[in-house]
Design a protein that fits this description.
The chain is mostly helical and 313 residues long. It has a two-stranded antiparallel ribbon with strand order 1-2. The mean pLDDT is 97.
């Protein structure tokens, strides 16, 4: 009876749009859902550094290099922010990273594709960060306090990421025919993975019912996807690029773009670990963790020594 009453009070708080804070009572399932979602979000941020980091040493100018450096650094910060927010739910970051390194935890499908040309850095900022902003501005209004607050800072930085990506695409499209072709080739390769990264269709989304009941998600996967497509197609038109979807058409009645079928077999195959770069991405993270062990040990030893000195001083 006690738990039933607390569950009703919890849901009433959610329905009123109040935030749930770490010390508040919450159903175990709510806590576990948030740990799943927030940790996978954090994993996505740090794995997402890899495809972009691949071009830091090969950026076409010092300006582009400086911008890309700060973007990749932002993603690291987003990851740390989200791990800290996930730790408020009583799980240790070490455990979360172990789940990533052993393949138990997912990270975003989108980061399992290779960055083959400089235009991919533009396409990632424009499309991937663009899709992420659609999703994250929604999450910023979510019910769990630490997660929604983390989104505020992250969304501000994502907007810069998105603008710099679009600017790269604009420079290429206003450049030589070869540069424009490079931009089109990149759009051809990143378009479909960018719209599927927003999650399976609503019918296949096993977590959405819970997440929407608890206002962690305020819109469904398909609703966010539609908003992303409606916003992005006119941007591609402005660039003079063709969206690689022969079924794409604007429905004047609904005011939305209708699109062709998404290749969900590819999506689920990628999240099962069979994407073009899954193995390489995971191995890089495992190696980085092992090679960085001495830094963590040294930092902890230094902090301990400083504490001992303060006590004896
Ligand atoms: N990649 C990998 N797995 C995915 C996925 C994706 N793009 N989309 C869905 N999945 C998984 C889910 O994790 C779930 O599996 P699980 O139950 O084993 O965890 C399964 O597919 C079914 O999907 P659901 O729709 O039921 O899952 P959700 O309700 O959690 O919705 C989501 C998926 C929309 C990605 C949601 O988890 C979410 O909004 N997460 C927070 C945002 C996030 O993680 N974004 C990742 C990109 S981060 C990024 O882009 C960084 C930027 O700086 C570039």
């Amino acid at each position: 009876m006690e738990d039933l009453k607390r569950l009703e009070e919890f849901q009433a708080k959610i329905d009123k749009g109040l935030k749930i804070e770490p010390k508040d009572w919450m159903p175990e399932k709510y806590r576990l859902q948030l740990i799943r979602m927030m940790s996978q979000h954090a994993h996505s941020e740090i794995v997402g550094m890899l495809p972009e980091g691949n071009w830091i040493t090969r950026a076409p100018s010092l300006r582009r290099k400086a911008i890309l450096l700060s973007k990749v650094q932002d993603e690291a910060g987003h990851g740390l922010y989200l791990y800290s927010a996930a730790e408020t739910l009583g799980i240790d970051r070490k455990e979360l990273l172990n789940q990533l390194h052993t393949g138990k935890a997912k990270y975003s499908s989108i980061f399992n594709y290779p960055t083959l040309t400089w235009a991919d850095i533009g396409a990632i900022g424009w499309l991937v960060d663009g899709a992420a902003i659609m999703n994250q501005t929604m999450l910023a209004r979510g019910s769990y306090g630490p997660y929604s607050r983390a989104m505020v800072k992250i969304c501000k930085e994502e907007s810069f990421h998105n603008r710099q990506g679009y600017e790269i695409m604009l420079s290429l499209c206003n450049g030589t025919p070869e540069q424009k072709e490079m931009a089109q080739d990149s759009l051809n390769r990143w378009w479909w993975p960018s719209i599927s990264m927003l999650g399976p269709s609503d019918a296949e989304s096993v977590n959405s019912d819970d997440l929407m009941k608890w206002k962690v998600k305020l819109e469904s996967n398909d609703a966010i996807r539609q908003r992303f497509i409606d916003r992005t197609v006119p941007q591609a038109d402005f660039l003079g690029l063709t969206i690689p979807d022969k079924d794409l058409k604007f429905n004047t009645e609904t005011g939305h773009y209708e699109h062709g079928p998404i290749n969900w077999d590819e999506f689920f195959n990628v999240i099962k670990g069979n994407g073009p770069c899954n193995k390489e991405r995971l191995q890089t993270r495992v190696d980085a963790d092992r090679n960085g062990q001495w830094v963590r040990e040294a930092a902890l030893a230094y902090a301990k020594k400083r504490k001992e000195q303060e006590v004896t001083a």
